[in-house]
Amino acid sequence: MTSDRRHYLRIDNRLLHGQVVQFWIPYLEIEHLIIADDLAAANPAMSTVYRMAVPRRIRLSVVSIIELAQAAREENALPTLIILSDIFDLARAFMSGFHCPRITLGNIHSAIGRNRITDTIYLTPEEKHALAQFHRDGRVVEIQTFPGEPLRLSLGKSGALEWERA
Amino acid sequence: MIGILLCCHGTMAQGFKDAAELIVGPQQKFEAVGIGPAQGRHDLKKALKAAMRLLGTDAGILILTDLPGGTPCNEAAMLLGPTVQMVAGFNMPILLRVLLGRSDDTTLAQLTEDISTYGGDHIIHFTYDAVHGGAV
């Protein structure tokens, strides 16, 4: 399971992108990258682009959300980075048997109906609700787009989300 | 003539376009699109499609992107076709070569022949010892 400290989970609207390829993959020293996304998994050309862009020594799996639990179990031994594009995809993965004690928010872009948390994270009320539930379920939720100190989620007395330096 | 389309993070594409035209003068069929911090993948796809319409796919388009696996690369890859190709990780020597290598009958295969070797061959490490120490 992903209780191993060398397993990382990242929510990033852009899935695999420059920051991930150039920084996070070498920094985390992972050997397995799992991209869990229904659209990407259904698009063989997109999977090929990801395979061409990720260094050959890294095992790559592009899976649908429902397949994530199985894919993460199979590669338990390797240091692994899992990327999903959306908080509700992660909620669906949890419902289908996926486990993960720690969640990092990387990039969630601005749009109408979203509130700014940081320059790189904008959340809807529904997403805030989902993150609060992840927290209450005992998971660590953090924002870390770039290297450096992450911001960690806690809940205030009224249940409001609070983000503090970890 | 084959169109050249730059697609990069931030303002890099427009910056490279400006810099290239400083060196080789104004160029025809040469477009630049970027992705800003607040833009998503779909905004970039729209901008790419608009630039491709301007260039026209009939004569061929070569898309140059900054980083293999970056969002500009990933989105452009979804728009490739028999007459639309991409090179990811381009540099200024590559850009000038393809701009100047175009004529009315150049093919995409000719324009991109050995392009990664060419790009690498034109990255040169100038050490102090080599330049001032007589090591060369």
Textual characterization of the structure:
The complex is a heterodimer of chains A (166) and B (136). Chain A is of the alpha/beta class. An eight-stranded mixed β-sheet of chain A has the order 3-2-4-1-5-8-9-10, with helices on both faces. In chain A, strands 6-7 form a two-stranded antiparallel ribbon. In chain A, a hairpin with a 5-residue loop joins β9 and β10. Chain A has six helices and ten strands. Helices cover 32% and strands 27% of the residues of chain A. The model of chain A has no long low-confidence stretch (mean pLDDT 92). Chain B has one domain: Phosphotransferase system, mannose-type IIA component (Rossmann fold). Chain B contains seven helices and four strands. Chain B has a four-stranded parallel β-sheet, with helices on both faces. Chain B is globular, with a radius of gyration of 16 Å. The mean pLDDT of chain B is 94. Chains A and B meet through α1 and α3 of A and α3 of B.
